[in-house]
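Pair request: fold both.
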Amino acid sequence: MKEDDKDLLDNGSSADKYDSPKQPPPTSSLNTNSQYDKEILSGRPRSVDTDPASEGSPPFLKVLAGFAAIGGFLFGYDTGVVSGALILLKVQFELPTVWQELFVTITIVAAALSSSVGGMMNDRLGRRPVIQISSLVFLIGAVILSLSYNITMLIIGRAVVGIGVGLASVTVTVYIAELSPPSVRGRFLIINALFITGGQFVAALIDGLFSYWPWGWRCMLGLAGVPALIQMIGFLFLPESPRWLIKHGKLDEACAVLRKTCPPSLYQDQYNQLVALKEQEESSELKDGGCFSTIARIMRTPAVRRALILGCGLQMFQQLAGINTIMYYSASILRMSGVRSDKVVIWLAAVVAFVNFAFTLVGVYFIDRLGRRKLGLRSMAGVLFSQIFLAGAFWAIAFTSPNDLNIYNGTVSDSCSSYRTCGSCIVDSSCGFCYSNSSIANSYCLPNSNGHLTNGSAFGPCSQSNLPEDNFTWAEDYCPSPLSLLALVGLIMYLIFFAPGMGPLPWTINAEIYPLWARSTGNAITGTVNWLCNIMVSMTFLSLTQLITRPGTFALYAVICFFGLVFMYLCLPETKGKPLEQVTALFRVPLFSVGRSSNKTGDYQVLVQEEEE
């Protein structure tokens, strides 16, 4: 056997020697009135005719997963609420592009930093306390945002919220995965994704309801404190992950949790696996403070290292495929397409968020039926097609928007007057497009009144002194076009493909593919990669639309999606129905062979055999 894989082999195959019921759980943790606990104490094996999937899930497990997934709701609410709030904030505080990007991005930077330490906190404090801390931090951030009176307070509040979001993102999925039986683990993990998209949809509704008042952004940003408070209180009464308890020598507590969360027919198997893990933790190399740190052990264990590369790749391509461009800037994208009214834009963004939520439900149905690999590949292929469609849509919108603009009297030397099309005019943040409501041919490119986004031009028919009396419209960030709704069609198409697969799968798969000793650290590393790529996309989207045009930006995302699809085809295995302790064994083959070899029957047994030889 290879020395590098000794730890990994123990994590998978050694559990097999505990499959017989010779070692019952401690009697102090069992309910002697329970039929299945009596069977365990008596040493009788469970019936081979029992189908674990047919027993359903204990109600307590559903409650537990629901409260944990509130962290996903907060994640989604924060993502979704920014889109509508930014429409109001950029007017009230007269925010130029760079400040808009900072307002969005500071949360992601804070989330990246907090997620990088979230793994260490999970290992030392436990999953439950970290979720409680994230709720408290999120509550504090929501209060700061609702009381903000300048852009500095808004940035601070968004940073505090980001710390809570980052901690929750690397903890909730691990917590749910460690409590869920293999037959329904995918369904329970995708509940977190469902709560994320549900949070985005609720945020869009809140944005729409409060868009009629200039101060409505306070309610949009502050209401996030309500679910955070509910989660914080709820987790006072919920247990710790049994695998974390076993890792820290709390066997009785772990068995008590298992009895509440595990179907009767699976209780024995789950207990046997935990006993195997306990024996591993008692070995010198697996104890805290061993010869090597967890990251060093990951790097020197080939299968876990390959799993980490896959996890980082999935998180990277999820973000570089442009999802948070769609969610953070959906209202702005619709404005770019030519929708005039702020209120209409915000409500259309709510439609986009609803589609995201509705099609995540499709993922709940298919993830344990179709499997992770097939669902992921089909999802990414659809996302690729959608990005190509969006690039074509914005090209068509630009082609049908006004060109050959007029030169306003006495402005020949003005820089804005040099632009001959609406598209080139609005790309310059110091200019805006002014057009007649009765005749689009009567249109101009004019400078903003003070050099950045305002409600009017510095002079001419769209100046603040003339609007809205004159029959002109000031469009500082969009061009009118008869094909504006193509952008909405593209956004909806994108989410129809993204939501069932690429939305939840990177988080779901990362919660499954690492052995216990590497699970928290692996999720912290990949979560940090997700947030860093999120920063890259969020901080560059508006700038890219100015630098390489809007069609060019979505074409760039399409190219990235193509490489992501190839990566997933080669490297993504099928993990459906496999116990957590066995999934990592799929990565004992070369990385670019993992995807195809995982479909072969008996792959896990063959790999273990090879390692043992």
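--- second member of the pair ---
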Amino acid sequence: MFLSDFRKEFYEAVLNQRVLLLVASDVDALCACKILQALFQCDHVQYTLVPVSGWQELETAFLEHKDQFQYFILINCGANIDLLEVLQPEEDIVFFVCDTHRPINVVNVYNETQIKLLVKQDDDLEIPAYDDIFRDEEEDSGNESDGSEPSGKRQRFEEEIVERTMKRRRRREWEARRQEILFDYEQYEYHGTSSAMVMFDLAWIMSKDLNDMLWWAIVGLTDQWVHDKITQMKYVTDIGALQRHVSRHNHRNGDEENSLSIDCMRIAFEYDLCLALYQHWSLYESLCNTCYTSASLKLWSVQGQKKLQEFFADMGFPLKQVKQKFHSMDISLKENLREMIEESANKFGMKDLRIQTFGIHFGFKNKFLASDVVYAASSLMENTERDESGTDNFIKALDSLSRSNLDKLHQGLELAKKQLCAIQRTVASCICTNLVISQGPFLYCYLMEGTPDVKLFSRPVSLCLLSKYLLKSFICSTKNKRCKLLPMVMAAPMDVEQGTVIMVGIPPQTESSDKKNFFGRAFEKAAENTNSRTLHNHFDMSIIELKMEDRSKFLDALISLLS
């Protein structure tokens, strides 16, 4: 059931209890977790934190801990499946679920005792009515008769038969309508308000919100924007809501007493360039490895490289300057940098090069944009350079969000640069070797075993980012108008020894896209129709694991299903 008063029904309920925190492996979940940890620290709430990357880990963690805990808090996992059916908990166990995944499972919505949803009600949830989905058993059983009446009662007996037949028909009609309503409701997968923002609202209601918590809420929202989970409209609306809090927390008068101390933290609203990591890289590298600019200029071609040179010439920036570290560039060039880049970008058809965002200053030396932190934390979480466990990577990513661990954040930024370069190399090679094929209802691309950087793309977040970059670039490179409106399915080898591939489906990249994804249900149906050996282990239903040998029959089923 939905909670209306988070403070009373959630926070005060767990205040004097030991709770288990189950946190998904995405940056928004990390940020929500940091805010909740800070609140728990204030009130000395005992908790155990367990990172979970999929349904199997969630089930395992629950089975291991169910005897020690009564209260479980799930962050960015658990809302979109029937939790009670999957976990089979005892009747006194309570789950508090703060999850951005939509649609929310109807059983979770209408369970009054064990499932408590920490969800913003202003998202357009469109939950089906209770009576359309659930029906009392007594209504259906009726008073069945055994049919052994004497002939005098025949008329009444015939009336009963007619009545029973009508009941069965009504029951069938109701079942058919229920299936239709559920299909419409569950057909598309999408994302609601960031969990970090929901947790920040809780802190604000309790007057315990700190500047650090506000920053984590900003990073959580920016994670949704960077990974293309929400619409531009939703992003701008949520940025506006956070901007009011930023003004309140970072208000400074001009007098000396309120001037910044050297280790102070300050958040500021920025109308900045959406160039990836440009303040920690060179302007040249950033332009080459940002999806929007790389796709618009078609940098994988010789013509595109010429265009890039023209772009710098138009701005009047010498190549020597743009190829060195951003902080080493001439101050005279940096002063009007944003306006100059925007002016030239407009001439080259790049109209959306600036974005509303926030930056953070630690003292006078360190400045980061929210998107820098998202790229860094994501890269730390899916680091494939060292064979460390998922939990170790999760803890490192969590640490990188604290201002006391700036060295971890810088480590994450270096990893993010490598990841973005790997994505651009792979996009260029896929387009130049025509690996993107139109399968009719969708575009398809498979990364062969032995492709450079293929190990990185066996991880879900990296593969999703690559798919989105590749689809945008393909749209810019193709002349086929129909292909520009198609969604995309991408697959990469996951575990060579076990012979599995990881597959992801992403919606079409159109201006008016509502970011709703229909591949989750389509994957389930295609697997069912072909008896393919699939594993639906990810919290995003549009990511599945599949046996290599079943790939072609699975794809054939998907094509016929969506045609």
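Observation on the second member. The two ends are 38 Å apart (CA to CA).
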